[in-house]
Amino acid sequence: QVQLVESGGGVVQPGRSLRLSCAASGFTFSSYTMHWVRQAPGKGLEWVAYFSYDGTNKYYADSVKGRFTISRDNSKNTLSLQMTSLRAEDTAVYYCTRDRQVVHFDYWGQGTLVTVSS
Amino acid sequence: QTVVTQEPSFSVSPGGTVTLTCGLSSGSVSGSHYPSWYQQTPGQAPRSLIYSTNTRSSGVPDRFSGSILGNKAALTITGAQADDESDYYCVLYMGSGIVVFGGGTKLTVL
Q1: Could A95 and B87 be called an inter-chain contact, meaning their C-beta atoms sit closer than 8 Å?
Q2: What are the tens digits of pLDDT across the range B4-60?
Q3: N or C: which end of chain B has fewer CB within 10 A?
Q4: Phi/psi of residue B2, nearest 5 degrees
Q5: B100 with B91: CB under 8 angstroms?
Q6: Are A78 and A22 in contact (CB under 8 A)?
Q7: Which of A45, A98, A112 should be substituted to probe chain B, the one whose Cβ sees the most B Cβ atoms within 10 Å?
């Protein structure tokens, strides 16, 4: 069965960096575009970034552009999010999600919590 | 900057019908935005309900339906049940790699 398992969250000071990972299993990872979506405590969902299945395109929300980098390793079935220059407003649960067909997010991980605080 | 608008809250009686909408701060929603809908209960990851305007995701009951109504995407729940009480989010693809979530609608069934 399809599984997405995020890891790497934690408490980090403002201005520091953190790397999130998403381990995928149960499907052909290299055939799917993958996204990161986040949710600040008590707030709505916010799209963060995506990496196309064929590796040709990466896109970012304006709120993270220039600070976050999405990557994928199709040989290891892993999606990553390198986050730098973290701010308090980046505090959120970060979800990894599979895109079956143009923003059809059919599977989601359980999320990993990132807290940016001094 | 594009803002995707949703009703902040809505209430429906058990067995009733409710239509939640998803609009744009500027312009109309169409099928080319591939509107999709997600249900989320507290502490859980979102669940896909509808994609590409009106296609139900696997396992979603047929009392959930999607459409375009006027200049907005719409999610209609027919015969609302107590466990439909959740937050509902729409998502639009804006082109050029940009994806935008709506602010979400908190649905109360009472």
Answers
A1: no
A2: 999 999 999 999 999 999 999 999 999 999 999 999 999 999 999 999 999 999 999
A3: N
A4: -70, 130
A5: yes
A6: yes
A7: A45
